[in-house]
Design brief:
Two copies of one chain form a homodimer. Chain A contains five helices and no strands. The longest helix of chain A is centred in the C-terminal third of the chain and has 17 residues. Chain A has a domain of 72 residues: lambda repressor-like DNA-binding domains (434 Repressor (Amino-terminal Domain)), CATH 1.10.260. Chain A is 54% helix and 0% strand. The first copy, chain A, is mainly alpha-helical and 105 residues long. In chain A, helix 4 packs across helix 5. Chains A and B meet through helix 1, helix 2, helix 4 and helix 5 of A and helix 4 and helix 5 of B. The structure holds a DNA duplex (30 and 30 nucleotides). Chains A, B: Keywords: DNA-binding. Chains A, B: This is HigA family addiction module antidote protein.
DNA sequence: TCGCGTGTAACGTTACGCGTGACAGGTTTT
DNA sequence: AAAACCTGTCACGCGTAACGTTACACGCGA
């Protein structure tokens, strides 16, 4: 797999993209209805769908319950996305610290 | 594996705990020195070590560079920790939405 | 035309990571 | 004993970000 590869060709999908492209078309609900169902504002869901907001812990919980794929699925998706972009910008550049793993159990 | 198990016996270690117990004792640096090395305030590092703050994206980048284990290591640790606690509190409780995966490629 | 779904901007609230300044207790060094 | 250092923690202000509410605009189908 390529998860640990330093440079990926393109950014991992934003959670909102997954929701918009893979899920929304298959549940027969409008954005307004889904928002109400999740217990969030229509704007909050819209912002996520259009990738203007990140998936928060609370949002991840709600999505995970609604679609039965758990909190971790959505949060990991967001993390993946964040890391990719973080590695593009100017990294803080910290000098490595040489150290040895502790062999004690 | 037990990662997806609904209920784990105890909480995954806080990132600060890993840093405090596994790393700090093996690098021969004081908290003050490490903070300076990372380019963060002593208070910020102290808060993390004592598990009063979470690992931010920026902090994860710095730790990952310093200890050569990457941003993802620290961020995933924090995520694991957050999820565990989120599942303990009162979940938002959202009704499941039945849906079918899209079979189209 | 009217109603509905959607995107978006503006405003205030809340939460949190962070830096700086400051104080206290403990340990080491002189 | 006194000075120097390490560490934890509190207070303050700042910047950022998610969220709800209100409001406006556009598109589409009835």
């Amino acid at each position: 797999m390529a998860a640990e590869t330093p440079t990926m060709a393109f950014a991992p999908a934003h959670p909102g993209a997954i929701l918009r492209e893979d899920i929304l078309p298959n549940i027969g609900m409008t954005v307004t209805e889904l928002a109400a169902h999740l217990g969030v504002s229509r704007q909050a869901l819209s912002g996520l769908l259009n990738e203007r907001r990140s998936v928060s812990l609370e949002m991840a919980q709600k999505l995970g319950q609604a679609f039965q794929n758990g909190t971790r699925f959505w949060l990991a998706l967001q993390m993946q996305h964040d890391i990719w972009w973080a590695e593009r910008g100017e990294a803080p550049r910290v000098a490595p610290i040489e150290w040895h793993e502790d062999d004690a159990a």
